[in-house]
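Anyone else keep sequences and structure tokens together like this?

Example one:
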Amino acid sequence: MKFIPIALLVLATSCFAGEVEDLEKACSSGDGDSCVWVGDWYRNLQNIEKSDNKALEYYKKGCELNVGLGCGEVGLMYYSGLGVEKSYSQAKDFFEKSCKLENASGCTALGYLYHRGDGVEQSNTSALEYFTKGCDLESGIGCAALGSMYLVGNPDAKTFEKAKESFEKSCQLDEGIGCAELGFMYGAGLGVEQSFKLAQEYDEKACKLDEGNGCANLAVMYYQGNGVEKSLAKSIEYRERACILNHGESCRILAIMYSTGEGVKSSFAKSLEYFEKGCRLQDGRACAGLASMYYEGAGVTQSYSKARHYFEEACNTGDGDGCVSLGSLYFNGIGVEKSERRARELFERACDVGYQLGCQRLREMNASE
């Protein structure tokens, strides 16, 4: 990480201080855009006067003066609990006002609230409505979300075409996830004629736009030799880039490669590092891999308590293997108090997500009763 000397930060702050003072005066005189600019100043991570509370104050002033972006920023702060107590209902109110003021990000954020059911009744119909409006207002993320909505359920030729059009607009707006989704569609021949050439073009653009999914798609292409010359080295290069961009699955795959020595020098330390990052990024299988290292004492000091902790994290993400492994710990009383009841619950969770070993363990328990 590159550090900026404090003296330079102070100098930069003093240089902008006069400008911010002018913006604050303009805000007080009723210029809503200036209020939002001041809010951005106080929220800037490199500003030594950073203050979420002050940012919220000025964003609210901007919103009161009918600047949609200000309302959207207030909504995001309530949604995330930044400088204010987290509140989905307050977030919804501000996102709604932002959207009514024709702010693309506000409409898109409102779409996500309905899609996830955060503080509102989950509604794909409402989500589709707001993602459509966000996309119409040139939100690249809104267009990408809209494209994904069209792929829900059993899409037909018409909805595949709508998804493609939405992803194309997202990509044209330089939103990396839209490009990556297009790359996936062309690579898999999903609703379009398969074209590895187009897949590569879209995934390369996505990766250049710092979208981890695009880099991960390229890693698969080079690993399998799909439309490109097979290259393990290039595949690893793109996996590393994807992991840096917080693509959890890529971090996990790198961990496995360092564990087995596939294309890299075997290293428990690197394997541990990548499993840890993948787990932090909510990749359940990465958590399970990390748990296995602690269970077996592979490159780390053996610890059943840490193994239990990471198997539990894996299970909580819906990873069937994590649930079965955690259930086995309880069934055998390894690192935890023996409990067949708890083991059964965990095997049932694994079976419910379609992990057949969990179903098998349940049958074995039932047969032994």
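And example two:
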Amino acid sequence: MSLLLSICIPTFNRAEKLKETLSYISRELSQVDNKKELEIIISDNASSDNTTLIVKEFAERSSTDVKIKYNKNQTNIGLLGNIIKLCELSSAKYIWMVGDDDQYKSGLLNQIINKCHKNYDFIFINHCYINKDFETISLEDGVIDKNLKEDKDKIKHLMTQKIGCLMFMSANIWKREYIKEILKSKVKKNLALPLFFSLYGSKDWNIGIIEDISIIDEVKNISWKDALHQVYLYDIPYYVNNLHKIGYNKELIKEIKNKTHENLLKKRVKYKVRKFIKNFIKK
């Protein structure tokens, strides 16, 4: 039987968070009828804590119907390298990259499986997020504009207004065949690569959306927070500037560029203000 979904978990020195995530996965698996079409892959980025023990205990109590792979890198290859590693280890039709620091709704795995069986090129999961001030954003409707009727328009709205949501790996399900094409291509690989995975899968608008708010993204915990400036000012624009190569029309690219530039400009101002205040306090 060919595998339908790879549940991929990148992790580094977050054993307790990983334990919580694996406990959630165990509960979700108990609700799945055909476990043999799934695999779980954990890639440990050279952790120095008890991550290996946590994974071993999880594997011992898990159903034998689910294939579990554990990879431990000899050295830390960075978040991006670990994501790519997981994609390379995947054997399934779809890849779900599960962040071990996010919160997930019960029943989500079955919803994902149902969407995967419909052969969408890209699947998006509605979510809300908690910012660094512990405020829950968009709790009522999530990040999706539910006033829009068509899934295509909902994703377009995210592209132009909330493009970072398409980079949030836990909320995006990608087709492995497309990931392989991207990784073999000459396109530059930077920290915004998950965004390009999502944009690439959306190019023909064969999209599935899980409308229920099913994930809480704890923004305060993002592992690449020290690279925010680089990601938003350089990495994201790089992929936006390459959308014409994968078939996006000029009008949409222009709209994405304009809105992205406007939003990124605001972020840049905030970044410079925070940096100024930080340096001023030090003095």
